[in-house]
Amino acid sequence: MTTALLALLLATPQASAPGMTVMAWQLEQPFGGIPQLVQGQVPNAYFVTPSFPLTGPFKTDDAPVAQNFYAEVTTRLQVDRAATYDFEVRTTSLVRMALAGETMLNTTDGTFRRETGVWRGQYRLPVGRTNLKAFIMHNEGDFSLDIRWKRTDETEYRALAPELLTTDPGQTFVVNPGPKRATLGAPTTRPGDRRPLTAVHPSFAREDIRGEDFRPAVGGMVFLPDGRLAVCTWDERGAVYLLSDLDKPGRAKAHLFAEGLGEPLGIAYWRGDLYVTQKGEITRLRDTNGDDRADEYDVVASGWGVSPNYHEFTFNLLPFQGSFYISSSVPLRGGHTNYTPSQKPGEPAYSTPEGPGNLYKIDPATGQWEAVARGLRTPNGMNLGVDGQMFVADNQGSWLPASPLYHIRPGARYLHQEQPFGDADESSVAVWFPHGEIGNSPAQMILIPDGLYRGQMLIGDVTHGGLKRLQLEKVNGQYQGAVYRHSQGLEAGINRLVWGPDGALYAGGIGSNGNWNHLGHKFGLERLRPTGQVPFEMLEVGVRQGGFQVQFTHPLSPGMEDLLGKIKAKSWRYEATIAYGGPKVDEKNLPITQTRLSPDRRTLWLDIEGLQAGTVVYLHLGDLKGPNDEFLWSPEVWYTLQRLPGEIKETPRRREMFAEPPAGAQILIGKGGQGDLRPLRPGVAKWPTVGDALVVQHDPSADIGGSDHVSGQPHGDALIHVEWLSPPGGRVETQTNGNSGLKLMSRYEIQIMNAPGIVDLAQPAAKFNEAGSIYRQTAPAFNPSYGAGVWQSYDIWFTAPRWEGGRKVANARATVYWNGVLVHRDVEITAKTGLSEEEAPGLAPLLLQDHQTEAEGGVMFRNVWLLPTPNSKGIRPPLT
User: Fold this and answer.
1) Taking a C-beta distance cutoff of 8 angstroms, is the pair 495, 444 a contact?
2) Same structural domain, 372 and 442
3) Are residues 478 and 496 in the same domain?
């Protein structure tokens, strides 16, 4: 516990710091009044200064902020005598001054004017500290602002002495170059159109779950097997709470399980124990006497370098394939990386060379650790994402012109340099979050396992707030893709996300001093319950040869063709330098030469000139409408175009074919996991139930088939619907990657496994022994997989083999739809597949296979049903 207690002492914040905080935003244009900033934009200049007068220009790593800027000055004024005070403001700028949140003086109101450049107001102040804030719009000329004061019974104004002014301590000066957006009066666009959304996405309903006395700054969340939610908090207490009664009306009960932890920013439940990431340590928490309080705090791993610097965090805790993964951030000084002289050539220029900016793989049995990826700055968000791959979100700063999402590859070095010089490779970024537009401080991402958006990810943001949606594709082995606006209206900036056993998404908020928070909020915990509603919006945007393909959630409304010509596209690139953040480079408008709409009005093709690899492409779809004249939820998308594809084989659009079983269907797995499915062998336990699903429990007595389950009734010709989820992990080379299978008549296997995942646009071929194949006979025509950890479906029209006098006269045949895409069209199955039962006349049961696996859990099945002789009932495959 020594490391944890030391970290806790280092993390305990001061109550205040001397001075006043100044933030200034360079605007696109001058304003005749004090404007309102579009939310989510960080300042160009940000600093603490002792007192007034305040003069410009304000220095930045980019161009100085001198004219056409909006600024805010924030401080707390100490008053030792309650009285009415007169304030005098001297400036040629537009200024509104507020005390305790009330406007005390406004230079746009002539009643406060005393002479040219001088305004006066009055306010009664109590003893103690009162918040003082100045809102400033400066257009032309040299900027200066002086605020002086006196009691009304005094004759001379005097300066606000520095010893009377205090501000937040420990601020990280998050800035970004380039012009920012503001409006005078009400916003001129809809929410989500060049400004943040104002509401939660219609696919979710927000629910309050925390009690008023429970205010967690959430550093990590994980559900326990008994349904309780474990939450660790990034605060002075450094605690772990267990939340119960989440399934009951009203607020959950929070029970303190552990405390005294140093900046806990990751938590996991693994093999019966609860683990927490602290600054420089992974700790196992155990309750040995059954009182529901941790009484053993065991160090599992430590030793990577950690200095007292306030910004050297240890983030995340991800168990995967028998190891733990964590990440660490670099030390800062005034927001910039705190480099120190290196002792030896090639060594990182930090005081703790083996600690900052790495991703670590840790053996929980021995505590041994190794850095498996380097070049990170503030990798606060990490998780398994699409294809069961590991992703991490970093935060803008030195060497990071905007915040990036990386796909983690062992041995990789990412953008942040370990020396104050270097040559960063921007192509390592999967998705850029343009600063102030769609992200500022991205945090944890989470895979969407079900519903229309399955196979995509959601990601929180601490300072931009809310959730964003990520949709990736792959070109020549590299992930790249799009980020969309998704949700706002949550109670704090979102730091951690976890799916609950109830199918709801739990969102944990956090915040700190300065502008590292969302709208000043520093804690939060809420539940987002799926509603099943789908707004009109872009579902997928994919790069194609010479342009982009846009898929919508609903058909485009009739009469929209004229608006297609108003769609806008532009691009830019980023250059990684030692400067804090960076501007858009080579920004230009891209001509859209042609638009084409599919017959069902759900897909739009945009032919665009001038697309270049290594850029961000921004599309604005304007005022397009869907059904019922509904505008797009957001008309904007940002696509990180690292590689351009050549000519590709297009995969048809995925869709759901059967919402409910047809009349006469035999239910094998239905609601609550109930149905006519049973173990094949006597004495074998039925697979366990999770919600409406059954989870394959491997019988180690056999590599394959030990706990196979079969339908209660045999079948011949049939329509079979199966929904399945193959978890991440395992190895495709040994077929242990979430392997199972569906065997028609116990003999003809349609393969199930977690590979392949997102199709590579440059290498789209599927294989004859992987998912979607008729095992080792016929590969699927397409790969419409959603990837590991996501619910998928097969719809199979099966024709049984025909026999005469004990001799087979016609082979079995199958038409297979995978996620609604036709991948086998009346394909002949010439013989049994793999280690299946030998072919023979008569009917045989449907079989769901148990197979040896190294994945993170067993394959899951739900909503499995079988309809005998579908053709006789008029239910035929929609081959057209």
Assistant:
1) yes
2) yes
3) yes
Same domain, 219 and 349: yes
Nearest to 72 by CA among 107, 23, 39: 23
Rounded to an integer, what is the distance from CA 662 to the centroid of its chain? 37
Are 6 and 135 in a shared domain? yes
Q: How confident is the model at residue 765 (pLDDT cuts 50, 70, 90)?
A: low
Of the three residues 538, 573, 602, the one that is the final residue of a domain is 538
Confidence of residue 6 (pLDDT cuts 50, 70, 90): very low
Q: For residue 650, what pLDDT is reported?
A: 78
DSSP 856: S
615 lies in some domain? yes
Look at phi and psi of residue 100 and say left if phi exceeds 0, alpha if psi is from -120 to 50, else beta: left
Task: Specify whether the CB–CB gap between 654 and 784 falls below 8 A.
Answer: yes
Q: What is the mean pLDDT of residues 535-559?
A: 96
Question: How is residue 449 written in tokens?
Answer: 């396992």
Q: What is the DSSP letter of 561?
A: H
Cα–Cα distance for residue pair 304/427, rounded to 1 Å: 28
Q: Tell me if 611 is assigned to some domain.
A: yes
Nearest to residue 870, comparing CAs of 693, 710, 666, 596?
Answer: 666
For residue 38, give the 3-state DSSP assignment: coil
718 vs 748: CA distance, rounded Å: 13
DSSP string across 1-21: -HHHHHHHHHHPPPS-EESEE
Instruction: Supply the DSSP symbol for 779.
Output: -
Residue 776 Rama label (left phi>0; alpha psi -120 to 50; beta): left
Residue 207 half-sphere exposure, CB side, CA atoms within 13 Å?
18
**Number of domains the chain is built from:** 4
Tell whether 162 and 232 lie within a shared domain: no
pLDDT digits over 312-322, tens only? Answer: 999 999 999 99
Domain ends where: 538, 557, 585? 538
* Contact call for residues 395 and 442 (beta carbons, < 8 A): yes
Q: Where are the alpha helices (DSSP H) in 217-375?
A: none
Cα–Cα dist 218/522, whole Å: 9
98 contacts 117 by C-beta, under 8 angstroms: no
Cα 522–Cα 523–Cα 524 angle in degrees, nearest 5:
140
Q: What CATH number is attached to the domain comprising 561? A: 2.60.40.1220
DSSP 452: T
For residues 687 and 733, state if they share a domain.
yes
- Please, what is the Cα angle at 372 between 369 and 378, to 5 degrees? 100
pLDDT, tens digit, 9 for 90 and up, residues 169-221: 988 888 999 999 999 988 889 999 999 999 999 999 999 999 999 999 999 99
Its domain, for residue 746, covers 666-873
Cβ-Cβ contacts under 8 Å for 332 (sequence gap 6 or more): 172, 309, 310, 311, 338, 397
pLDDT exceeds cutoff 80 at 799 = yes
pTM of the complete model beyond 0.85? yes
